[in-house]
């Protein structure tokens, strides 16, 4: 049994069945033995990008996510952990996702090569 947190772009690729999502990652997400989480960070990032007109997603996306995955809330411990991360990546959403993985001991599912430098 493994615990995974999906990066925002992975969430979007999963629900749009995007061809950029590698088969290996699809299999990990679909494996019933794995616990897959979506962070409140991703919901926040999607909401901001949608409100700015940079992203088009259905209004029902949050409900759809809830039907398939578990949500991970943001805690003060997650926020504090950002302080201790090396400054490799400047994206605040990604840094908070990484911090959540450190605190929760989850593996982050991402295609972002910058994030892999933290692992």
What does this protein look like?
- 24% of the residues are buried.
- This protein has seven helices and four strands.
- The protein has one domain (3-116): Rossmann fold, CATH 3.40.50.1010.
- With 119 residues, the protein is an alpha/beta fold.
- Helices cover 50% and strands 13% of the residues.
- It is globular.
- A four-stranded parallel beta sheet has the order 3-2-1-4, with helices on both faces.
- It starts with a strand and ends with a helix.
- The protein has helices at 8-16, 23-30, 40-51, 61-68, 76-81, 92-104, 113-116, and strands at 3-6, 35-39, 70-72, 107-109.
Task: Write a brief caption for the model.
With 119 residues, this protein is α/β, with parallel strands linked by helices. It has helices at residues 8-16, 23-30, 40-51, 61-68, 76-81, 92-104, 113-116, and strands spanning 3-6, 35-39, 70-72, 107-109.
Query: CATH homologous superfamily - what is it?
Result: 5'-nuclease
In which order are the strands of the major sheet placed? 3-2-1-4
Structural classification = alpha/beta
Strand content: 5-15%
CATH domain topology: Rossmann fold
Largest sheet, if any?
A: 4 strands, parallel
Shape: globular
């Amino acid at each position: 049994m493994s615990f995974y947190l999906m990066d925002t772009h992975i969430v979007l690729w999963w629900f749009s069945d995007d061809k950029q999502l590698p088969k290996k990652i699809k299999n990990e997400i679909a494996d019933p033995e794995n616990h897959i989480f979506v962070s409140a960070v991703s919901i926040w990032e999607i909401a901001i990008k949608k409100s700015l007109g940079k992203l088009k997603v259905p209004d029902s996306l949050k409900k759809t996510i809830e039907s398939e995955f578990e949500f991970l809330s943001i805690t003060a411990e997650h926020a504090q952990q950002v302080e201790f991360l090396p400054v490799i990546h400047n994206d605040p959403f990604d840094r908070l996702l990484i911090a959540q993985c450190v605190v929760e001991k989850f593996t982050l599912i991402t295609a972002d090569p910058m994030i892999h430098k933290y692992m």
